[in-house]
Amino acid sequence: MNFLTVSQFSADTQTIIYPVHKENLATQLTFIAEQTSLPVSILTTEVKAEKAEITLFFSAEKRIYVLGLGSEPDSQQIIKAFRTLVFKHKAKVGSSVGVSLQNLPEHWTEFVVNGFILGTYDFGLYKSEARAAIPFFENGTVELLASDSNSELIEKGQKMADTQLRLFTLLNAPSNFKTPQTLASWAMHSGEKYGYKVRVFDSGECQSQGLSALLAVGQGSKSEPEFIVMEYKGEGATRKVGLVGKGVTFDTGGISIKPSENMHLMKSDMGGAAAVLGAIEVAAKLKLPVHVIGIVPTTENSVDGESMKPGDVIQSYAGKTIEVTDTDAEGRLILADGLSYLVKNFQPDVLIDLATLTGSIIRTLGYHAAGLFTTNNELGKKLKRAGERTGEKLWRLPMWEEYADHLKSDIADVRNFSGLPHSQAIAAAKFLEVFVENHPAWAHLDIAGTAYGDTDLATQRAGTAYGVRLLIEFITQLTKENINDKSQ
Ligand code: BES
Ligand code: ZN
Ligand code: ZN
């Protein structure tokens, strides 16, 4: 698929899309009427510009889609509307499509392109029957009607979408197609292709490094755990950002086994890893002037004679002992090693971890926002603002000391589960805090509700690549801040 900026649609463009939003709708409809010779009265009756509302007209042998974006849409709404339109109508659009960006803010171009490409995602990757090829996706042209050339925005939308599509595939892959080795080779290939360093520690190397908590979680699985270390250093980088993502490729709960009802969804317990893999890849593609270190501890959490048992006391990279009172609270164990390894070996200026960490955050915030935990107000504000810009909402929860008491152990330095039926997402954040070595700018994002979500496009929940756009936005703002600081 090829995107071109044009000042006039080619005569043979078979499909034209007019995005409309609720502000000044009448003016927008008058413009469409002039362009298409559709009567303005019909447009006014049919089009309300609701979110992702699709109205189809035929005029002069062309398909005319008027696509609703709602009121003052954020970037996510624009992306979603285009993704839905392309996904639902892909077979009918012909070989060339025009999109009118006239009357829209210029920066929306990125989101239009991004949503357009995401609409090509095929959920049925494991279906045996060959599906009809969509020639448009291979060699179709999308003409963007705009007064200025906006190739940088088009490229950003494309580069982001290409990574997101591959992350969808990784997130949606079942555990018999996705092991810690799959995540490791994803990182290796990406590093090779986009020019950043990747090292993978196998279990032997983890042993000699002392990554004991990761090894303990992985000891019941046939596939060995891996510890992935990625490092991208852009030209002119002055800030060092550390990212850690939970990479549990399947979470049975271990011996503290989960109920079976929704256990199949636990193939998505590597949503934090996906966000980190994606963010570092996109940062490298966009050549952002930043130094990013991404760490993904990855393992299965399986049931076996070798599995750790509730009550076991394990070691950690930080040298602290952990009483594992619940083997299903495994994410915090592998993150503990990831966080302390990153702090000790790289001393980042900012440290962010992302993890599908607790069911508790879903009971608190549902599927619309991720939990944000930090004691650094400045960092909290910046992340929240970045999320508002990308439509990936974050909501801050407290980190008060009282919650740390829930994790006191009589026999070890700390325990991994309070045994209490409440405030588990907060307790999880307090557990992680033990392992960040008093880092002054650390934030934890609990993305259990947002990494894997409902769409109108599939019957079941699917990977969202939540966090990639958020992290790229946050990092981009950070690099701008640097430039300003210097010029002052
Ligand atoms: N992977 C789960 C959290 C999760 C739950 C993610 C639902 C996505 C959807 C995590 O490892 C877990 O099992 N957490 C336990 C923690 C508890 C034992 C303290 C939970 O939330 O129940
Ligand atoms: Zn678990
Ligand atoms: Zn888990």
Count of discrete domains:
2
CATH superfamily of the largest domain: Zn peptidases
| Oligomer category | single chain
Largest sheet: 9 strands, mixed
Bound molecules: ligand BES, zinc ion
Residue runs with pLDDT of under 50 for 5 or more positions: none
Under the CATH scheme, the architecture of the largest domain is 3-Layer(aba) Sandwich
Percent of residues in helices: 25-40%
CATH-assigned fold name of the largest domain: Aminopeptidase
Termini separation (Å)? 44 Å
User: What is the typical, i.e. mean, pLDDT?
Assistant: 96
Main structural class: alpha/beta
Can I get a quick summary?
It contains 15 helices and 20 strands. It is an alpha/beta fold and about 500 residues long.
Characterization of the model:
The protein has 488 residues and is an alpha/beta fold. It has two domains: 150 residues, Leucine Aminopeptidase, subunit E, domain 1 (3-Layer(aba) Sandwich), CATH 3.40.220.10; 319 residues, Aminopeptidase (3-Layer(aba) Sandwich), CATH 3.40.630.10. 38% of the residues lie in helices and 20% in strands. It contains 15 helices and 20 strands. The strands form four sheets. Strands 7, 8, 9, 10, 11, 14, 15, 16 and 18 form a nine-stranded mixed sheet that branches. The longest helix is centred in the first third of the chain and has 22 residues. The chain starts with a strand and ends with a helix. The model has no long low-confidence stretch (mean pLDDT 96). Bound molecules: ligand BES and zinc ion (2 copies).
